[in-house]
Design goal:
The complex is a heterodimer of chains A (259) and B (404).
Chain A: E1 2-6, E2 9-11, E3 18-20, E4 23-25, E5 31-33, H1 35-51, E6 54-60, H2 66-75, E7 79-83, H3 93-107, E8 112-116, H4 127-135, E9 139-150, E10 155-161, E11 166-172, E12 175-179, H5 191-199, E13 204-205, H6 207-210, H7 242-256
Chain B: H1 7-24, H2 28-34, H3 41-47, H4 66-79, H5 81-101, H6 104-116, E1 121-124, E2 140-144, E3 147-158, E4 165-171, E5 183-189, E6 195-199, E7 211-222, E8 226-227, H7 233-269, E9 271-272, E10 275-276, H8 281-310, H9 315-339, H10 341-344, H11 351-363, H12 368-380, H13 397-401
Parallel strand pairs in B: 1-4
Antiparallel strand pairs in B: 2-3, 3-7, 4-5, 5-8, 6-7, 9-10
Helix pairs in contact in B: 1-4, 4-5, 4-7, 4-8, 5-6, 5-7, 7-8, 7-9, 7-11, 8-9, 9-11, 9-12
Classes of the chains: A alpha/beta (259), B alpha+beta (404).
The complex binds flavin-adenine dinucleotide (2 copies).
Amino acid sequence: MKIAVFVKQVPDSAATLSVKGGQPDWGDAPLVINPWDEYAVEAALLLAEANGGEVTAFSFGSESAADALKHALAMGVSDAVLLSDPALSGADAGVAARVMAAAIAKLSEVDLAVFGKQAIDSDTGLAPSMTARLLGWPSLTLVAAVDALDASAKTIKVQRSMEEGRQVVQGKLPAVISVVKDYGEPRYPSFMGIRKASKAEIPTWSMADLGIEAPTSRVTWPEIMAPPMREVSNEIIEGSSPEEIAGKLADKIIAEGVL
Amino acid sequence: MDFQLNEEHLGVQKMVRDFANKEVVPVIKEWDRKQEMAPFILPRMAELGILGINIPVRYGGQGFDYISLGLVCEELEAADSTLRVIMSVHMGLNSMALLQWGTEEQKQKFLVPQAKGEKYACFGLTEPGAGSDVAGMQGTAKRDGDEYVLNGEKMWISLASKAHHALVVLRTNADAQDPHDGLSAFMMELDREGVKTGDIHGKMGVRAGSTGWISMQDVRVPVENRLGEEGEGFKIAMSCLDNGRYTVGAGATGLIRASLEASLKYANDRKAFGREIGKFQLVQQKIAYMVQSYEAARLLYLRAGWMKNQGQRNTRETSLAKWFATDASFDAASEAIQVHGAYGYSDEYDVERYLRNSKGAVIYEGTSEVHQLMQAGYALGYREDSPLRCEMPAYDPEFWQAEA
Ligand SMILES: Cc1cc2nc3c(=O)[nH]c(=O)nc-3n(C[C@H](O)[C@H](O)[C@H](O)COP(=O)(O)OP(=O)(O)OC[C@H]3O[C@@H](n4cnc5c(N)ncnc54)[C@H](O)[C@@H]3O)c2cc1C
Ligand SMILES: Cc1cc2nc3c(=O)[nH]c(=O)nc-3n(C[C@H](O)[C@H](O)[C@H](O)COP(=O)(O)OP(=O)(O)OC[C@H]3O[C@@H](n4cnc5c(N)ncnc54)[C@H](O)[C@@H]3O)c2cc1C
């Protein structure tokens, strides 16, 4: 099996986001692999281990995105490729999807493309479905488990995580899946993986390498505003019994005019 | 001069930090209260390769350098000292001694399973009646044909009840003119007949760790288990300490960092007299001292690690790093409690555990007084290091990383 997994480099989830000069600003927060994508790498590795095969990690971004790829290498993927081109700064999800679809085509004979649920910076969650649409592959999003995968019959059966429960869906390979946390805790990088990653020279595929024209963004962010801060104060209501606490709470709610 | 950690170092640091934060920090208080080592700790550290981090791949390890070992210890002790203690005895005091002094057969027999984490190792030097005064030890090893017969009691031994192998130092020659020359070192399997082990309870700190005793009654070990030559035991023990102390110094640095981080968080949250207590200069002074001691301790251990990588003798530098960092970690933890006010005095917060844990390291692997004697001795010219028959090998990435 040939599996492609996509990882993005994003500001650390602990970073505070503010708006500076009409642009989002994460301060000097360290960049890390998108946490959802760690689950994607874990899923890709588990599927490759169970079904035989190799995992190639791709990242679309600037040169610093190589760090996310190094993390994937350290976790155990066989190869990593950076998708980068100076012509593509400020790309929207559509551009990213076109580039990623072209990378899958160039790698050729890919059976499965694995994504995280969404990226924690832009938070759109569009990449998996858009990429699938461009490739004409089934898009199985929010996957919590793969129940069955038959590489020779080219079928896959997954459980999708829904608010109401799990939805079992079957599809044909090649397919795109996006995975959620339920898939399983991502492994730590192994020491051997860390060494391999630190020695790895990560190749870059430009648009010319992919054989496509640099796509243009349809979405621009002309201005970004921070919502006004809300004043929040917390109070812990104490009492000797639940009834007493509930009574005090009800009085407070009425006094504050919430109801 | 290069102060930059390389990509491997950063990768190791992050991986061990993630492990400690995800798996150890959330549960450690509970085990500390129970005064037991969490059963998952040793197997998990083995599985992750931590127990063999700086041993060559050909001997079952991960092939990283000595600086990586220091970074691992800093990360582990930032979570809990007991994890670093494991590295001190299993790696610093035992496995590294095998790397330095062991024959190829001893490396295959003991080092390979230890580096793979299939066997755990400890170090038995201290006795009920002899600590700092190593040469005052009573335990004996008597040659009997192809065997030695071991007798004696080792006390305050970390991992005594968990380990499979112990490096023990015993007296082989009661008549040696200088008692230091009458000692020899042995690798002893702890399941041999005549060996008994147990834990010590009621310790002030490292309560989530195991500290115990080993008693030997007519324990027979083959001559092949003797590490080094007969009479070389004291030199071997001191060379073990060059590595054990390195792990202790690096670990104590992590404890300073943990005290600092806890203090920063609290000083930014807690308000008194209408502002965050971090705004008060007296609190700032405590923070400033913690920053100072963290940075200094870190530089001292990294220099020692660098010297180890180069294959340079580092007894003096390692002693200095250990002495400074452990004293500073005790002060930092104590001041961290102070910053936390009454909350710091309760085990609801971590800082009281930091203080209890920090004290042990001021005592083991050379008390602070012993390190002061050493440092003054070097400075005054009373003391110099003579070359060893087997020096600790310099870090050679090619040798370390090759399969065989
Ligand atoms: C938690 C813990 C774990 C340990 N783990 C191990 C282990 O794994 N293996 C092992 O072998 N040992 C271990 N030890 C023992 C440790 O190494 C000894 O406690 C240490 O060497 C000090 O010896 P002692 O306790 O006998 O104190 P002593 O040597 O009796 O010292 C008592 C006091 O006298 C001072 N003193 C002694 N001699 C001098 C001198 N010449 N000049 C000035 N002052 C002096 C000391 O500094 C100290 O303050 C451990 C100890 C602890 C607390
Ligand atoms: C065992 C124990 C028993 C106790 N018993 C009693 C009791 O019987 N009755 C009772 O009323 N209380 C009691 N206390 C509470 C004790 O009096 C308080 O803990 C103490 O007053 C400190 O207050 P705090 O803990 O809120 O710390 P904080 O006031 O929050 O102080 C936190 C840190 O900020 C520093 N700080 C605060 N303000 C300033 C400033 N202006 N400039 C510089 N530094 C500042 C403090 O020195 C400290 O380091 C007890 C506490 C303990 C630990």
